[in-house]
Amino acid sequence: MLVKVLHNGNCSKSNAVLEYLDENGVPFEIINMIEDPLSVLELKTVLKKLNENVSHIIRKEEKLFLEKYAGKDLSEDEWLQILSENPSLIQRPILIKGSVAMLGRPVENVKFFIEQ
């Protein structure tokens, strides 16, 4: 089954997962979150597949988060809008296979995901 990878080309962990999939002959499709940001609806779909809430995918160590959003009490919908407009704040990579998804870190966890 094709694995979709929500990817940021500037992220070493994201690049490592692509390399792992390629080396292991796993068919995948790259979705560049920076060049083609996800809509709020797409983010909701990803969260449902992850079985997580929005706080699970926010990069809380990112400079933009620390400068602009740290300590703010925002709703799920407000965060979804922020992430749609600022895709660099989304954890990556996120792997999607059918109706399930996972954060692709550490790369060792990817092996179990693709074998299911």
Automatic annotation (TrEMBL):
Pfam families: ArsC. Belongs to the ArsC family. This is Regulatory protein Spx.
